[in-house]
């Protein structure tokens, strides 16, 4: 056999880039890129093979809620690995039961039991299957500005333009418009008089055409994440929930991005006291250190499942390493008062953004809750003409790409969707680091101002 011991020189960044370009398939991208090679991270910072440091104003994919390398999460994974790495999902396991009990503790009162998955897509897949099974109906209503995952069903639910990359969607998806107050549907200027922004009236209208008896569930991100940090107006979620209840339709809250303190509460629905029938989550549950997602259901659904098998299962459901990391992350958030810190830092961040808006004409809208924020960039504040068109790519997205490049070269990691920059730092970022990020953002926005 060949001696391969020196065949893979793991620390040569050029080799890492070569292999990345030629042998690694990257999500949602054209292949062949040669990225920066990240060699370490701590807290709100990560660094590359040249020793250059970056402030993570995105918490990676909005999952590193407790930042990088949190010692309590790492220790819990190590301890669990020493004890028991894997045991089938049907067997009892202390960390599995403990995480299920914690989920019961922190989810809304009506939500009492949890199925563990490997991430958000699998959580949503399972949620729609349970909803169809429980109601005996097939249609699912999902919104246009949404991302629910990349597996077959979850990508079909997704309204994000990436869903156009596939050819065969799961049947039975009906689309609803979004409560996007900054850009209401044509002809509307007042959210209070707009059925779409009110929620219930728009849903009622759809149901008139669809027949409510055929609709199993409405799935929505209580605060839209990937597609531009869209916070619904007051009363929206309550109105959707009331309409769902009227017709026996389940409400599924996809809290994959917004959950676990991201908005300053355990779940975004808590801002409005709404109790969905199913909550899905992932990402921030353990800051992404090990793959983990959840699908949590109401007591009614759980009781019904006592007599009917759960229509789903995964080899890695309730993986002990993942559960141990989830327990440690949630306990760390409780011990470190992370939700209160995220609320305070979020307020500071938005105050600073309003200060920046006084000098940057490109800032059209500032929105968010807690550490889940976005700024929408425009060419003209009066007309609200977007800085780049919806879902722009390539040259059409140049000002946005230029800004991301400038920020990265200056040590700030940001991301965007269409004309919205998302600002989602770790929940435990220090005030000093937050201000460092804002200062680089301030300079970055000068690029967009040139188009105003
Ligand atoms: N739902 C929402 C709201 C998300 O933001 C994401 C991922 O970004 C998903 C579902 C899919 O989660 P995953 O990538 O863990 O499958």
UniProtKB/TrEMBL annotation:
Identification of the protein by name: Aminotransferase class III-fold pyridoxal phosphate-dependent enzyme
Cofactor field: pyridoxal 5'-phosphate
Short name of one Pfam family: Aminotran_3
Residue stretches spanning the membrane: none
Species the sequence originates in: Aliisedimentitalea scapharcae
Entry superkingdom: Bacteria
InterPro entries given in the database record: Aminotrans_3, Aminotrans_3_PPA_site, PyrdxlP-dep_Trfase, PyrdxlP-dep_Trfase_major, PyrdxlP-dep_Trfase_small
SUPFAM superfamilies: PLP-dependent transferases
Record keywords: Aminotransferase, Pyridoxal phosphate, Transferase
Family: Belongs to the class-III pyridoxal-phosphate-dependent aminotransferase family.
Molecular function GO terms recorded: transaminase activity
């Amino acid at each position: 056999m060949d001696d391969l011991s020196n065949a893979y020189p793991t620390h040569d960044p050029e080799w890492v880039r070569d292999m990345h370009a030629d042998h690694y398939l990257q999500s949602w991208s054209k292949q062949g890129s040669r990225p920066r090679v990240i060699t370490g991270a701590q807290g709100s910072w990560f660094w590359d093979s040249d020793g250059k440091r970056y402030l993570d104003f995105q918490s990676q994919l909005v999952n590193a809620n407790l930042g990088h390398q949190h010692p309590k999460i790492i220790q819990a994974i190590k301890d669990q690995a020493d004890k028991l790495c894997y045991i089938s999902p049907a067997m009892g396991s202390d960390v599995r039961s403990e995480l299920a009990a914690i989920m019961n503790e922190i989810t809304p009162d009506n939500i009492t039991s949890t199925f563990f998955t490997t991430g958000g897509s699998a959580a949503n897949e399972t949620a729609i299957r349970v909803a169809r099974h429980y109601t005996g109906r097939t249609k699912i209503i999902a919104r246009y500005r949404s991302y629910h995952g990349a597996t077959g069903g979850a990508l079909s639910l997704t309204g994000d333009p990436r869903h156009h990359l596939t050819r065969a969607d799961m049947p039975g998806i009906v689309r609803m418009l979004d409560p996007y107050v900054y850009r209401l549907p044509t002809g509307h200027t007042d959210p209070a008089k707009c059925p779409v922004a009110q929620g219930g009236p728009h849903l009622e209208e759809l149901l008139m055409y669809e027949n409510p008896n055929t609709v199993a569930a409405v799935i929505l991100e209580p605060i839209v994440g990937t597609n531009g940090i869209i916070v619904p107006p007051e009363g929206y979620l309550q109105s959707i929930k009331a309409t769902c209840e009227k017709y026996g339709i389940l409400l599924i809250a996809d809290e994959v991005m917004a959950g676990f303190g991201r908005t300053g509460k355990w779940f975004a629905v808590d801002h409005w006291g709404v109790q969905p029938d199913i909550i899905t989550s992932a990402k921030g549950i353990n800051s992404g250190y090990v793959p983990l997602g959840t699908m949590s259901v109401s007591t009614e659904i759980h009781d019904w499942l006592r007599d009917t098998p759960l229509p789903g299962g995964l080899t890695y459901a309730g993986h002990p390493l993942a559960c141990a990391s989830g327990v440690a992350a949630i306990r760390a958030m409780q011990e470190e008062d992370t939700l209160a810190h995220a609320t305070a830092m979020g307020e500071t961040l938005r105050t600073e953004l309003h200060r920046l808006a006084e000098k940057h004409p490109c800032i059209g809208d500032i929105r968010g809750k807690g550490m889940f924020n976005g700024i929408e960039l425009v060419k003209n504040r009066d007309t609200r003409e977007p800085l780049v068109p919806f879902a722009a790519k390539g040259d059409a997205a140049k000002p946005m790409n230029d800004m991301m490049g400038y920020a990265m070269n200056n040590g700030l990691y940001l991301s965007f969707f269409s004309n919205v920059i998302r600002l989602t730092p770790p929940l435990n970022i220090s005030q000093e680091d937050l201000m460092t990020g804002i200062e680089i953002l301030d300079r970055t926005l000068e690029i967009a101002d040139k188009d105003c």
